[in-house]
From TrEMBL:
<feature type="disulfide bond">
    <location>
        <begin position="522"/>
        <end position="536"/>
    </location>
</feature>
<feature type="disulfide bond">
    <location>
        <begin position="394"/>
        <end position="407"/>
    </location>
</feature>
<feature type="disulfide bond">
    <location>
        <begin position="46"/>
        <end position="62"/>
    </location>
</feature>
<keyword id="KW-0460">Magnesium</keyword>
<keyword id="KW-0401">Integrin</keyword>
<dbReference type="InterPro" id="IPR057243">
    <property type="entry name" value="Integrin_I-EGF_CS"/>
</dbReference>
<dbReference type="Pfam" id="PF23105">
    <property type="entry name" value="EGF_integrin"/>
</dbReference>
<feature type="disulfide bond">
    <location>
        <begin position="517"/>
        <end position="551"/>
    </location>
</feature>
<dbReference type="InterPro" id="IPR036349">
    <property type="entry name" value="Integrin_bsu_tail_dom_sf"/>
</dbReference>
<feature type="signal peptide">
    <location>
        <begin position="1"/>
        <end position="19"/>
    </location>
</feature>
<dbReference type="GO" id="GO:0001540">
    <property type="term" value="F:amyloid-beta binding"/>
</dbReference>
<dbReference type="GO" id="GO:0007159">
    <property type="term" value="P:leukocyte cell-cell adhesion"/>
</dbReference>
<dbReference type="GO" id="GO:0007160">
    <property type="term" value="P:cell-matrix adhesion"/>
</dbReference>
<feature type="domain" description="Integrin beta subunit VWA">
    <location>
        <begin position="32"/>
        <end position="450"/>
    </location>
</feature>
<dbReference type="InterPro" id="IPR032695">
    <property type="entry name" value="Integrin_dom_sf"/>
</dbReference>
<keyword id="KW-0130">Cell adhesion</keyword>
<dbReference type="InterPro" id="IPR016201">
    <property type="entry name" value="PSI"/>
</dbReference>
Length: 749
């Protein structure tokens, strides 16, 4: 029972619109009614005087109609430019063809004026005229493998005309033939073979050719029979043929083929082979792309050996442009190939041709019935930022689509929905059924301005007598600024005052306030609080959240930063104040080389968690503290004169005979070249060490030359020297002495 009540409740909600999508006005920078209209399809403007409070941003005038009414704006004061559509040409649909230009699509012209983002829908109607003329161009593959088919086609004229007369009394038939490009590797270029490319057993054979137009459109059956009877088989080397070349020329050479302006145009291609397409010409060194132009002289395609084959896209475009509907009558071995091709060419059909083409008439009848029973409408030259959706209104309708709509009935309707996403100048595009000449021209413009009912008073009291009212907002006279023109700028220009209100990014009051006499008056936030700061840069609602609460509910948000209550810390006040996990074995916090936040050490640069004891990226203290070790331990070196000032606060030392510290031993040369050995233990803090220094320094080798060495004072250290006469060139053979007590001049030894 409860489930039944729930179902009824949901049904009632749906019927009353409770499940409908809510209208939303997504505002950005709004300074005028025009800015509001451009912001979104559901944004409307309140032009009511005194709608805004003093210091309140005029942007509050822009919102959805429901919200403005809720805030107290009168319905008659709300501006919302509507969409409009005007049919400018709507001739009646024709019933039968009577030699006049028939009308199969209505309307023919429509003018739309749209708000950006707001769709409008209008209907179009199509009715296929009974007895509408048909032009059929029979394009046949005359390669050697189609020899049997040609014999049957020569007798098809009577049956073909009979089939077309069932459809219309105004039928015409033309004929063309193709093989392939007359260059290697497609055709044997031996002179004799070019003239006679068929097998030796074939008595009748015509010279190799690419595409030949044989017969222009004619209503005379006998003329068709005579011209087709004159045709003979030709030949080439490879299996794919130049069928796309032939179809392209048949499409673009309309005056030579004889296509009528008012007719259903059918192009029947019969073949038992695949097709060459764009890029295949490179095999013959043909690099020039197909230009989609007519190149027929004396009924022959003269650029066959100079231009590449067309691409499928090029061919589809020209077929569509010239309202030609292809029917591919192909043998079983290539049916799948042409079905794939048909998927890329709108309004085309594929039929399986018997091995000798006996069933071609029935195949054409079936294909025509399929093409004529289905109507596909689409558009051309659609401007940027314009969207069109077609919704068929018929019994066998296809799904709504942005590119086209499909109906399987003779008389059908479509709902066409047009949306302009941005403001734009007047432009136009066309809508038409594929394969049909009739078109609908849609002229489109956008409505991005407000037609406000402004009072015709030069100095309105609403503006303190210093300006006009436009769409509810004051437009101040020269020398006055402010929401109500209340500020006289005196000898200063308005630009100077406004410049004082711009933040570091050049935005006036950060977009959150009004510049009044050179100072920012900040607006209220959506929740009713105020922005604050010299440039309205602060609000107290944008701080970090914890457990979906601002500042975790344990602090106050101030200009984007949480100020935590006593006992709490963290960027969102998410932690209780504690240093337990930051304490070291000597009861310090992070060894003085970091800060304890949220009970975790945030170490200074280079020092590693968890307690900042080691520094992987710091310089070696054996090198950085050598000068202090030298001056503290031996009263010499660069810091000798200011040793206390330079070193006493960072290095505490003790002279020892042997080390007691377990840290790494440092061994460095001092300023006099003696080896100094010491150990360092880092204390609390970054630049704070305990040092043990060995009293004796290490041995140094001195090489002396008898004549040029003068006596010098030598400090107490172990010295090893080598005396070498000036004329002695072999030092390795020189005498070496060991000096253990060097307080005297070493030369005395």
């Amino acid at each position: 029972m409860s489930q039944c009540w729930l179902f009824l409740l949901l049904l009632l909600m749906g019927r009353n619109g409770l499940c409908q999508k809510e209208e939303v006005c997504s505002k950005s920078v709004i300074n005028s009614c025009s800015d509001c209209i451009k912001s979104g399809p559901y944004c409307v403007w309140c032009q009511q005087l005194n709608f805004t409070k003093p210091g309140e941003q005029e942007a509050v005038r822009c919102d959805t109609q429901a919200k403005l009414l809720e805030r107290g704006c009168k319905a008659e004061e709300i501006l919302s430019p509507p969409n409009s559509d005007t049919v400018t040409k709507n001739d009646r649909l024709s019933s039968t063809f009577d030699q006049q230009e028939p009308v199969q699509l209505a309307p023919q012209e429509i003018r739309l004026e749209l708000r950006p983002g707001l769709p409008t829908t209008f209907p179009i109607h199509f009715k296929r005229v009974q007895g509408y003329p048909v032009d059929l161009y029979y394009l046949m593959d005359l390669s050697n493998s189609m020899k049997d088919d040609l014999q049957n086609v020569k007798g098809l004229g009577k049956d073909l005309f009979a089939a077309l007369k069932k459809i219309t009394q105004h039928a015409q038939i033309g004929f063309g033939a193709f093989v392939d490009k007359t260059v290697l590797p497609y055709t044997n270029t031996n002179k004799d073979k070019l003239q006679r490319p068929c097998d030796a057993a074939d008595k009748q054979c015509q010279a190799a050719f690419g595409y030949r137009h044989v017969l222009s459109m004619t209503p005379r059956e006998e003329e068709f029979k005579t011209k087709v009877t004159e045709q003979f088989i030709s030949g080439n080397l490879d299996s794919p043929e130049g069928s796309l070349d032939a179809m392209m020329q048949a499409s673009v050479c309309g005056d030579k083929i004889g296509w009528r302006n008012s007719s259903t145009r059918l192009l029947v291609l019969t073949t038992d082979a695949g097709f060459h397409m764009a890029g295949d010409g490179k095999l013959a060194g043909i690099l020039e792309p197909n230009d989609e132009h007519c190149h027929m002289e004396n009924n022959l395609y003269v650029k066959s050996s100079e231009m590449d084959y067309p691409s499928v896209g090029q061919l589809a475009s020209q077929l569509d442009k010239n309202n030609i509907q292809p029917i591919f009558a192909v043998t079983k071995n290539v049916v799948n190939v042409y079905r794939q091709l048909s998927q890329m060419i709108p309004k085309s059909e594929v039929g399986e041709l018997s091995s000798d083409s006996r069933n071609v008439v029935r195949l054409i009848e079936d294909a025509y019935n399929k093409l004529s029973s289905k109507v596909t409408v689409t558009h051309d030259n659609l401007p940027e930022n314009v969207r069109v959706v077609y919704t068929p209104r018929c019994e066998h309708a296809g799904p709504p689509g942005e590119n086209r709509g499909v109906c399987d009935q003779v008389r059908i309707s479509f709902d066409v929905t047009v949306t302009a996403d941005t403001c734009m100048k007047t432009t136009s595009f066309t809508i038409s059924p594929l394969g049909i000449k009739d078109t609908l021209t849609v002229t489109l413009s956008t409505n991005c301005e407000c037609q406000c009912m402004d009072p015709q008073v030069a100095n309105h009291t609403h503006c303190k007598g210093k300006g006009r009212v436009h769409c509810g907002i004051c437009s101040c006279s020269q020398g006055f600024v402010g929401q109500f023109c209340e500020c006289s700028i005196g000898d200063k220009d308005e630009g100077t005052l406004r410049e004082a209100c711009k933040d570091e990014n050049g935005v006036e009051c950060g977009g959150r306030g009004d510049c009044v006499c050179g100072r920012c008056e900040c607006h209220t936030t959506e929740s009713g609080n105020y922005y604050h700061g010299a440039f309205c840069q602060c609000d107290d609602e944008q701080c970090e959240k914890f457990q979906n609460k601002l500042c975790g509910g344990k602090g106050k948000c101030n200009c984007g930063t949480c100020e935590c209550n006593t006992g709490y810390e963290g960027s969102a006040c998410q932690c209780t104040v504690s240093q337990e996990a930051c304490r070291t074995i000597n009861n310090t916090v992070c060894y003085g080389r970091g800060n304890c936040k949220c009970n975790r050490c945030e170490c200074d640069e280079g020092y590693q968690p968890p307690r900042c004891q080691k520094c992987l990226g710091c310089q070696n203290p054996c090198l950085t503290k050598l000068n202090c070790i030298e001056c503290l331990g031996f009263d010499q070196g660069p810091f000798k004169k200011n040793c206390t000032e330079a070193c006493s606060k960072s290095v505490f030392h003790q002279m020892v005979d042997q080390f007691t510290l377990s840290s790494k031993q440092c061994e460095q040369k001092d300023s006099e070249g003696c080896w100094v050995k010491f150990k360092l233990d880092q204390l609390v803090g970054k630049d704070n060490y305990w040092a043990e220094i060995l009293k004796s320094r290490g041995m140094v080798e001195i090489i002396l030359t008898y004549i040029y060495i003068r006596p010098v004072a030598v400090h107490t250290c172990s010295v090893r020297y080598t005396a070498v006469p000036k004329w002695h060139t072999n030092r390795r053979a020189a005498r070496t002495r060991q000096c253990e007590h060097c307080s005297a001049n070493p030369l005395a030894h």
